[in-house]
Amino acid sequence: MKQTQLFQKTTKEVKQTDISRNAELLTKAGYVNQLMAGAYTYLPMGLSVLNKIEKIIKEEMNAIGAQEILMPALQPKEVWEKTGRYDTIDVLFKLKGAGERDFVLGATHEEVITPLAQTIINSYKDLPTAAYQIQTKFRNEARAKSGLLRGREFRMKDLYSFHTTQEDLDEYYEKVSEAYKRVYERCGLGHITKKTYASGGAFSKYSHEYQTITEYGEDIIYIIPGTDTAINKEIINDKEALKDIIPNYKDGMEKEFEQVKAIEVGNIFKLGTKFSQACELKYTDKDGSTKYPIMGCYGIGSSRLMGAIAECISDDKGLIWPKEIAPYQAHLISLVFDEEGMKICEEYYNKLKSNGIEVLFDDRTGIQAGEKLKDSDLIGIPNRFVISKKTIEQNKIEWTERLTGKTELIDFDKAISILKE
Amino acid sequence: MKQTQLFQKTTKEVKQTDISRNAELLTKAGYVNQLMAGAYTYLPMGLSVLNKIEKIIKEEMNAIGAQEILMPALQPKEVWEKTGRYDTIDVLFKLKGAGERDFVLGATHEEVITPLAQTIINSYKDLPTAAYQIQTKFRNEARAKSGLLRGREFRMKDLYSFHTTQEDLDEYYEKVSEAYKRVYERCGLGHITKKTYASGGAFSKYSHEYQTITEYGEDIIYIIPGTDTAINKEIINDKEALKDIIPNYKDGMEKEFEQVKAIEVGNIFKLGTKFSQACELKYTDKDGSTKYPIMGCYGIGSSRLMGAIAECISDDKGLIWPKEIAPYQAHLISLVFDEEGMKICEEYYNKLKSNGIEVLFDDRTGIQAGEKLKDSDLIGIPNRFVISKKTIEQNKIEWTERLTGKTELIDFDKAISILKE
Lengths: 421, 421
What we know:
Oligomer: homodimer
Structural class of chain A: alpha+beta
Strand order of the largest sheet of chain A: 9-10-13-11-12
CATH architecture of the largest domain in chain A: 2-Layer Sandwich
Number of helices of chain A: 12
Largest interface: A-B, 55 and 55 residues
Mean pLDDT of chain A: 96
CATH class of the largest domain in chain A: Alpha Beta
Shape of chain A: elongated
Largest sheet of chain A: 5 strands, mixed, barrel
Number of strands of chain A: 23
Radius of gyration of chain A: 25 Å
Helix content of chain A: 25-40%
Number of domains of chain A: 2
C-alpha cells in the first residue's frame, strides 16, 4: 500500500480524553481514531492488527476443539432476569425499543449461550462441547479513559464449555490455559504475562486472570517466587488461599513477594452449574437421570489485548509490532524525490509485492527525511528499508530493524530473504 | 468436521416468529437460532456461510481500491444532531448511559465517517478516496418477522467514497455498480438480481437498488424490456423519470412491463455534499479555495444477502448453497454402522481432509438412512457422498449433486477430482 493512498495518517493531535499511553500512541500513528471516550474507529492498519490478533485467538481456540459461532449483542431483558443479573451487573447497557420492549446490550453471553446449548445438548453423548465467538461487546462505563483497555464498545473472544464431570471441566480448563499461553506468546507478551490466581465463585475456589506486567497497569499482582504464576490483590490477604496455592507456604512470606503493576488481558472461570440451573439446561445421563452440565467460561478482550501490546511493546519513539501481528512486514521509505529516484523506489516496491511481502511504501513527497523516519518509528513496522541517493549509488538498501534499532546497508536480495524468514 | 461433534443440529422445531422461508430453512438446518424476533445466533456452519459471503464482498471492495476500517456501533447523540437525523430516522435505537449521556446505535455511518474523513482529507491530493466496513448494525424495528431479511441486529457492508468532482463520483459509482454485480454473481444470485432505478435525493436524480427476484419478495419491481435493469415502484408512475431513463420512451409503455416480487439486496446512492456540509468536512483545492468533497454511499447487508440466498436458492427439500459460499464442499454420509464399515468411512473422511477438502462427515449412528439423506438435502452442501454396504462391495462411492439431484456410483479418485474442480 502506498502511504499517499492510505485511509490513515499520522497526527500530532490527540484528544484530551486520550490520556492513556496506548490511545496516545495508536492515535498518533493513525491506527485508531476516537469517536468518543471508550469508542474507537479502527483505521486500515489498526483493523489489520486487530484482525491478526483475532486470527491467532481463533487458531488457538480451534486447536482445542472449540467451534466458532456468533451471538447477538442485542438481547431481550427476559434472559437476564432468569439469571438475576439484570439488576446486579452495573455496567449493563439497557435500552427500550419499539412497543416499549426492554433490551440489553451484551457485556457477556452466558444468558444467550446456555439456553441455546439446549438445542445441541440432549444426552451425555453430546458432551463435552465448547463454542466461542469473537464479537463486539458493550459496557456502560462511567469513566472510559484507558483507550482500548476499557471501552464502552470493545471486541472480545468469549468461550463457553460444557461437561458431564468436574474432572472433565478441570481437564479442559487446563487445555484452555495452555491455549491462552500460546496466544500471549504469539502476540509478543508471553515473557511478561503471568497466570494469576483470583477469587472463584460458588463452584470453584479460584479463577485465573492473565496479567501483563507494565508500569502503566491498573492492577497489582504478587509474583510467587520461582514460578510463572502470581496472585491478585483480592486473595493476597487470604491465608487459607495462600496455604492452598503455595506448597510449603510459610506464614507472612507473601510480604516478600514482588509486587508489580499489570493489565488484565484475559480470564478463565469455572462456572459449575450456576447458569445451566438458572437457564434449565439439562441432559440425560447414561443411567437415564437428568443432570445439569458443568460449565466453564473463558474471555480474552482482543481490542484490549491490542491496547496492552501497544502499551507494553513500544518505546519513546513509538510502537514496535511483533512480527505476527504487524500490519505490514516491511516499511519502504523513499528519500529521493526526483523522477529517476521515484522510479527506482517503485521498482523495489513492486518487487517486494511480487514476492508476496506485505509492504507499506512511504511515497510521500514534500516531507523532510527526518519526519519520514520519525513517522516510521511511530508506526512500528518490524523492518524499515530506506532508499536514498547514497543507497542508490551503492546499489544497496538501508535496513533498520525496529525492535533493536540495528541498521545495515544490504543487497536487495538479502532484504527479501530477511522478510521471508 | 464430524456431525456428532458439531455445535449445530438439524431440528423440526421452528419458533412461531420464524415464519419467513429463509428463517424456517436456516433454523431447521441448524445454521441459525433465534434469540428473539430479528436477532439470530449464527451456529458454526451459519457463521461459515456468512464469513464466506463477507469475504467475497471484501475482495470486490478491495479490488476497486476501497480500504477496510471498523467504526463503532455506539455513537454519541451529538453527531446525529449535526445532520438533523437524530429525529428523522425512526428506526434509530436511542439509549442512555452513565451520567445521563445520550447514545445512538448506528443504523448507518455517515455521521461517523464524515467527521473522521477530515483526519485523512485536507487537500485535493487526498482525493478521491473510499473506505468501507463490514459491521454489526441495529434498527429499532417494530416488526421483525422476515428472518435474516430484516433484523433488529444485522451485518452490513457500508462503503463511503469522497470526490472532488461530480464526474469523478459518477465514474466511481459505476465501478461500485460493477463490483456489486460480481458480488451477486459469486453468491449465485447474478441471474435473478436486477439493478433497479429508485428515487435519488437533493443531489442526484436517481439512486439504485439491487433487487433479487423471488415470489417471497416484499418489494415490486418493473423490468425494462430487453435490459438487465428495472424500475422500482417509487418512480414507476413518474413520467419525467421514465422519459429520462428509457430511450425512446412511449407514453404508457410501463403498463406492459413485467412486474415481479423482489428482495432488496443492496443499494448505491450519490450523497453529493449533504453530509460534508453538515459535518464541515472540507478540503483545499488546487486554486487554494476551500470546498466540500462530493460523497457516495453504498450498502450491502451481508446477513440479509445470506437470507436472500436461502430464500431464492432452495427447493422443497432444503437449502442449495452455491459452491463459493457453501460451509463445506462435501457431505460424507455413512450408512454402515458396524465397526468394519465405520473404519472404511473414517478412512474416506481422512483422505478427503488430507486432500484439503472441506468435508462434513455424518457419522451419526442409530439414525435411519432416510433421515440422514433428508437432513443432507436440508443442509444443502453441494456434493453428497454416501457410503453403504452396496458401495463398499463395489469399491465405489455414491455421489449426488445437490443442485441437480444427479446421482452416480463413482470411484473415490473421481470424487476427489470433482471436489477439486
